[in-house]
């Protein structure tokens, strides 16, 4: 082990791979890009860091202390699904004129989509990636939008609040300010008449095993989405079929790419909270939770919420989980052809919970409820009583009812058992998270692995299932709802009186210079926020580790070899929400 | 009065006299089929509107069809992105007349919270004719229902004689935008070239 040398040089794992670790700061280890793959391999095989959670990049153009030589930084967050606990952060610094590094997809196949995302946003090239194509924007888009020197058409200023509007509240139509009168921007010298649109993408074909007696079938490519009744939003799958069997699948995202991260860098810290609501719009409370946790890490003592607020956060997050799983179970059945009837049952429960949210936050879906160091509004005794009513007297019965109809339902069994197989090793390697990972039998839950907030006080089980298929995912979701009810019961019993906010509510949040990664176990999996601060009122970088998006890594391996009708169910069981996938 | 007198007495209890417009519009407005087409967060509220509690079936609208050919109403529920808008316009073109567009939420109406985003279209009305706007982020199901009732009102007040879809000069479909370095309309290529090629535009560029 490397601890001895690490102590003398101050660099963790310094001797593992000679020449790999070049530097370290309090946030991570800086790795030489030529040794990156070797070093990652070492960490995975010998140190147990088998899970690449988040991969992103930061553009440090003009950041204090940075030169063009280390303008870009690719950041890897690695964790261990076996040991739990804090992971390690790897950083690779790249010069402005040569932004390329080796791809990690061979060590961590889950890096696939995230590397494509970084390429799309920053133009950083990952050598050896099997299909380094744009994923959110389209081929041919002009420039790399997340670079600091790339300005959008409606660009006004680097940071909000914009001087033109603040403090006098002036307003001018964005359309009146720009030359085209619209949110568009063409490069100089571009000629639309000679423009040839790039070829549409085709999936990589995985040849099925040659088997004798196979009837002769044709190869066709079918496009599913973005307008498709079953794609859970505007998601597009390009599927290559051999007869009815899927031999290739290419996910295509970005139809709801709303530029969260770019807008997030312009917003103030506080101003980002309502935007997080709109990520996974089925579970806004969890999104708030993840973001405030990340920022509170940079706020020191001022970021410590009082007891009552902690309890309120947990209550809201668990209610959200129930909402989300209700929805996803209902709509899984939708995908199976039971159009809308099961969904009606589950939406009913969701509505009751949304009423609770509306009572406390003022909005059914976009709650905007949590604040740095607390929550926005307190609940009264009547609210708590209503909540107890639902939690103690109703939800469990309703989950039972749902199970009576569904769990042993023959159609459900036939369509789901054995469909979409994902082995535990693959699930970890592909960075699957949340119910996807646990339905492959891996007991990894951020609430247990790195307990945040007050989750260490509650007694609950991490629900797993060894089925590794769609049915297992369904069962894990049902089980998690029961566990959430259990947590809710404890939280509602123990919730203390007291303040709900550390200090006074303020518009301006003082955040120290530094970076932080805060993650919660959202309903869909590990929802992480990676924020970098330069000490100003706005984030320098605001990255979201979106579980829906990263879970899509598993889609292609899971669907290959199944029938095209199964792809709909498999996608439904991943439970993606496009707001979060595309951001 | 005069007409009533001409109807034989035994029929008067069984016959209902009305104008063609009224009957035609009444039947249309009470079975308006929306398209099963969700874009973003607002779509969730649209689904909730269709579910048990708010029950869109009361307005004869519970049949949501994923195929544009069978739909009368497109509820643009969510953020319209540049990557998505060609598809939306194509879907609209595929809908049969009479067709209506309801813009649900701040995003579909004007870009909403994401207006400044580089991939966001500032409102679907830059491309499609919109009949009803419903404000909100997201609009509550009640608000959506109110918007739908407003649309019913609009339909009820249309007249067969003046509606565009029975005219000879029915407008053609809407040009589908394309994705180049940024989104562009092929029929405005000349205008774009004049600017990108740094020539003085022959006519002043007026944008809608
Ligand atoms: S208006 Fe608000 S709720 Fe609706 S799509 Fe836009 S951000 Fe989402």
What does this molecule look like?
The complex is a heterodimer of chains A (583) and B (208). Chain A is α+β, with helices and mostly antiparallel strands and 583 residues long. Chain A is built from 19 helices and 15 strands. Chain A has a five-stranded mixed β-sheet with strand order 1-2-5-4-3, covered by helices on one side. Chain A has a three-stranded antiparallel β-sheet with strand order 8-9-10. In chain A, helix 7 packs across helix 8. Chain A starts with a helix and ends with a helix. In chain A, 52% of the residues are buried. The N terminus of chain A is likely disordered. The C terminus of chain B is likely disordered. Helices cover 33% and strands 8% of the residues of chain B. Chain B has one domain: Rossmann fold (3-Layer(aba) Sandwich), CATH 3.40.50. Chain B is globular, with a radius of gyration of 21 Å. The termini of chain B are far apart. A three-stranded parallel β-sheet of chain B has the order 1-2-3. In chain B, helix 5 links the parallel strand 1 and strand 2. Chain B has 208 residues and is mainly alpha-helical. Chains A and B meet through helix 5 and helix 9 of A and helix 4, strand 4, strand 5 and helix 8 of B.
Brief sketch in words of this structure:
The complex is a heterodimer of chains A (583) and B (208). Chain A is α+β, with helices and mostly antiparallel strands.
Write the layout of secondary structure elements.
The complex is a heterodimer of chains A (583) and B (208).
Chain A: H1 3-9, E1 21-25, E2 28-31, H2 36-46, E3 51-59, E4 72-79, E5 88-94, E6 100-102, H3 111-122, E7 125-127, H4 174-177, E8 219-224, E9 236-242, E10 245-252, H5 260-266, H6 273-277, H7 284-296, H8 307-335, H9 341-361, E11 370-371, E12 374-375, H10 381-406, H11 410-416, H12 424-429, H13 435-438, H14 446-449, H15 470-494, E13 514-522, E14 525-533, E15 539-545, H16 547-551, H17 555-559, H18 564-574, H19 578-582
Parallel strand pairs in A: 2-5, 6-7
Antiparallel strand pairs in A: 1-2, 3-4, 4-5, 8-9, 9-10, 11-12, 13-14, 14-15
Chain B: H1 2-6, H2 9-12, H3 20-29, H4 41-50, E1 73-77, H5 85-94, E2 100-104, H6 105-110, E3 132-134, H7 141-156, E4 178-179, E5 183-184, H8 189-196
Parallel strand pairs in B: 1-2, 2-3
Antiparallel strand pairs in B: 4-5
Helix pairs in contact in B: 3-7, 4-7
């Amino acid at each position: 082990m490397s601890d001895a040398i690490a102590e003398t040089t101050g660099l963790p794992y310094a001797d593992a791979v000679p020449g790999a670790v070049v530097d370290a700061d309090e946030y991570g280890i800086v790795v030489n890009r030529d040794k990156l793959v070797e070093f990652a391999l070492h960490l995975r095989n010998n140190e147990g860091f088998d899970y690449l959670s988040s991969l992103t990049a930061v553009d440090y153009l003009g950041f204090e202390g940075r030169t063009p030589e280390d303008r870009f930084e690719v950041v890897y967050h690695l964790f261990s699904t076996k040991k739990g606990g804090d992971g390690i952060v790897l950083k690779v610094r790249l010069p402005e004129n040569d932004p390329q590094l080796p791809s990690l997809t061979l060590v961590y196949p889950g890096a696939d989509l995230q590397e494509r995302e970084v390429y799309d946003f920053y133009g950083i090239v990952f050598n050896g990636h099997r299909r380094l194509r744009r994923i959110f924007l389209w081929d041919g888009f002009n420039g790399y939008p997340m670079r600091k020197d790339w300005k959008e058409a409606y660009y006004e200023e680097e940071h909000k609040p914009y001087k033109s509007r603040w403090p006098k509240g002036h307003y001018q139509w964005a359309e009146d300010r720009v030359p085209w009168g619209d949110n568009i921007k063409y490069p100089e010298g571009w000629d639309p008449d000679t423009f040839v649109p790039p070829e549409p993408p085709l999936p990589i074909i995985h040849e099925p095993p040659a088997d004798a007696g196979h009837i002769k079938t044709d190869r066709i490519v079918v496009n599913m989405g973005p307008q498709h009744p079953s794609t859970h939003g505007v998601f597009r799958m390009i599927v290559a079929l051999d007869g009815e069997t899927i031999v290739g699948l290419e996910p295509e995202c970005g139809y709801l790419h709303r530029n969260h991260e770019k807008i997030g860098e312009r917003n103030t810290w506080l101003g980002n909270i309502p935007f997080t609501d709109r990520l996974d719009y089925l579970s806004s409370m969890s999104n708030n939770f993840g973001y405030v946790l990340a920022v509170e890490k940079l706020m020191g003592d001022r970021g410590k919420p009082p007891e009552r607020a902690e309890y309120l956060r947990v209550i809201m997050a668990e209610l959200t989980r129930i909402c989300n799983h209700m929805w996803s179970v209902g709509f899984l059945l939708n995908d199976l052809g039971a159009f809308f009837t099961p969904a009606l049952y589950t939406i009913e429960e969701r509505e009751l919970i949304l009423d609770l949210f509306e009572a406390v936050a003022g909005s059914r879906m976009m709650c905007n409820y949590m604040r740095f160091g607390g929550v926005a509004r307190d609940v009264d005794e009547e609210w708590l009583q209503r909540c107890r009513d639902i939690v103690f007297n109703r939800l469990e019965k309703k989950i039972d009812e749902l199970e009576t109809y569904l769990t042993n339902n023959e159609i459900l069994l036939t369509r789901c058992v054995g469909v979409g197989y994902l082995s535990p090793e693959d699930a970890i390697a592909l960075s699957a998270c949340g119910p996807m990972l646990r339905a492959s039998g891996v007991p990894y839950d951020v609430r247990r692995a790195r307990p945040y907030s007050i989750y260490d006080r509650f007694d609950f089980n991490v629900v797993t299932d060894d089925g590794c298929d769609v049915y297992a995912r369904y069962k894990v979701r049902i089980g998690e709802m029961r566990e959430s009810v259990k947590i809710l019961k404890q939280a509602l019993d123990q919730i203390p009186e007291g303040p709900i906010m550390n200090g006074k509510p303020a518009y301006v949040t003082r955040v120290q210079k530094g970076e932080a990664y805060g993650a919660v176990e959202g309903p869909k999996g590990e929802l992480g926020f990676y924020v970098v601060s330069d000490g100003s009122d706005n984030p320098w970088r605001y990255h979201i580790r979106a579980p829906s998006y990263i879970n899509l890594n598993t889609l292609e391996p899971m669907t290959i070899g199944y029938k095209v009708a199964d792809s709909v169910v498999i996608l439904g069981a991943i439970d993606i929400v496009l707001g979060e996938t595309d951001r | 009065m005069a007409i009533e007198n001409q109807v034989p007495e035994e029929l008067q209890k069984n016959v209902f006299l009305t104008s063609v417009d009224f009957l035609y519009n009444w039947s249309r407005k009470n079975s308006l089929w929306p398209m099963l087409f969700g874009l973003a967060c607002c779509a969730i509220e649209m689904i909730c509107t269709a579910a048990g509690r708010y029950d869109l079936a009361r307005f004869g609208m519970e049949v949501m069809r994923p195929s544009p050919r069978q739909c009368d109403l497109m509820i643009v529920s969510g953020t319209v992105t540049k990557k998505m808008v060609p598809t939306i316009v194509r879907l609209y073109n595929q809908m049969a007349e009479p067709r209506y567009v309801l813009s649900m939420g701040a995003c579909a109406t004007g870009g909403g919270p994401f207006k400044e985003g580089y991939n966001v279209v500032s409102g679907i009305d830059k491309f499609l004719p919109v009949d009803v706007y419903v404000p909100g982020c997201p609009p509550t199901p009640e608000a959506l229902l109110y918007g739908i009732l407003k649309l019913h009102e609009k339909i009820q007040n249309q007249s067969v004689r003046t509606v565009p879809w029975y005219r000879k000069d029915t407008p053609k479909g809407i040009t589908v935008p394309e994705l180049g370095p940024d989104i562009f309309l092929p029929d405005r290529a000349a205008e774009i070239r004049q600017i990108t090629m740094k020539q003085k535009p022959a006519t002043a560029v007026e944008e809608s």
